[in-house]
Amino acid sequence: MGDDNKEQKFLRDTAVIGIGNILSKGIVFLLIPIHTAMLTPAEYGASELIYNFVNLCLLIFSCSIADAGVRFALDASFSKAAVFSITIFLPVISSLFLVMAASVTGSFLEVAYLDYILLLYMLFALRESITQFFRGIGQLKTFSWLNILFAVSLLICNVIFLMCLDLKVRGYVYSFVTASIGVIAIGFYKLSKMYGLRFPDKKLMGQMLQYGIPLSFNAISAWVTSVSGRYFLAYFCSVAASGIYSAAYKFMMIIVVLVDVFQKSWQISAVQSYMDSDRNTFFSAVYKKFVLMAAFFSFVLLLILVPLAPFALSKTFSEAIQYIPFMVVLGFLVTLPSFWGVIYLVVKDTRGVFLSTVIGAAVSLVMFIVLIPAYEIGGCIMASCLGYLSIIAYRIIDCRKYLKVDNFAGETIILLVLLIVVACLINYNIYFAALLNVIIIIMFVKKYRYVFISK
C-alpha cells in the first residue's frame, strides 16, 4: 500500500473516531459548570478522588484486557469470538474477586464509599472491554456512537441527580452507574449476537494476559504520573486544593481528547503498515504531523481558554483559572509519548511501555514530594511535566531498535519553550501574551502549512 493510500486510510479512521470522541468529550466538558456549581471544592475533590481510585483499581485488576482485546482482534490469526469471550470473562472474574476481597478486609479496614467503588469498577471494566472490542473488529462507527451515547446519558443523569435532586457526591456516582449500564446493555447485545459466548480458550487467555499485564503496570505508572498528584495535594494541602487542581485539569483534557483520537486510529494504521518497506518514511511523516497538530491546538487553547474559563467555572473555583495555561503545556507533553507507545504495542513489546512509564512515575513521585509542599498546585503541575519529559526521552531513544523515525527534536523543543513563555506571560499580562500568541500562530501556519496540504 502506498504512502498516500495509507495516510488516507489513517485520516478516515481518525475522522470517524474523532467525531465520536470530540462530540462525547465535548458533552462531558459541559459537566464542568454543573459540577462546580452544585458541588463545593471539597465535594468535587472527593468525587474526583472516588472516580480516579476506581480507575486505579481498573488498572490493577483488569490486566488491561480491553487493550489486549483490541490488539488480538486486529490480528487475523486469532478467533474474534474467542477474544470477545475472554474480554467479557476476565472483567467479571476480577469484579467477583474484588467483592470477596472487600468482604474479607471490610471488617478491619474501613474504606470510604467502598460500595460505590466496587460497583463502578465492575461497570467501568465491562464498558471499556465492550466498547474497545468494537474498535478492534473495525466497527469504528459503533465505537464512536457508544461513546456519544455514554456522554449524553452522563449529562442527562447529572442534570437529574445533581441539579434536580441535589444528591451531591451520590448523584455524581449514580450518573456514572446509570450511563454505564445503558452502554453495556446495548454493546453486549450486539456483540453476543455476532459472536456468542463460549468458555475461554486457556492458551489464548494466557497470551492476552501476557500482553496485557505489562500494560497494566504501565497504566499504573501512568496513573502515578498523571493522577496521584491529587492525592499528594490532598495530603500536603487540602481536599479543596485537590478539587481546584481537578477543575483546572479538565481543561487540559481537551488536548488529551485530540490525542486519544489520534492514538486509537494510529494503532490500527501502525499495525497494518509496520511490515511495509517504507515504514520509516510513513512513521516519520505521521509523527511530524502529530507534533505540529498538538502544538497548534495548544497555542490556540492558550489563546481562548483563559477568557472562556470563567463561564465554565463557578466563582468558588476561580482560583483554577491561573493554572489553566500551565495545564495546556502539560497537555502538550502528555501527547508526545503516545506516538511512541503505539510502536511498542505494534511489536508487542509491552515491557518497553512499562519501563518507560515506570521511569516517568518515579520522577513524578520524587518531584511531587519535593515541589508540592513548596509550590502546592503549581508544584504538582511542574512535577507532572518532568515525569512526562522523562518518558518522552526514554521512548525516543529505545524505539530506535525498531524504527528509524525522525524525532523532530529541535523544533519540538522550540515549540515547547514558546508554549511555556506564553503560559507564563498570561498570568502577568494577558493582552501582551495574546498578541505574542497570535504572532506565533500566524508564523506557525505560514511555516508548516505545507505539511498538511496535499501535494
From TrEMBL:
InterPro entries: Poly_Biosynth_Transport, Polysacc_synth. The keyword rRNA processing does not apply. GO terms for cellular component: plasma membrane. It is found in: Cell membrane. Its main location: membrane. Keywords: Cell membrane, Membrane, Transmembrane, Transmembrane helix. The keyword Membrane applies. It is a multi-pass membrane protein. The chain crosses the membrane at residues 15-37, 49-70, 82-102, 108-126, 146-165, 171-189, 209-226, 232-259, 290-311, 323-346, 353-375, 381-397, 409-428. This is Oligosaccharide flippase family protein. It comes from Phascolarctobacterium faecium.
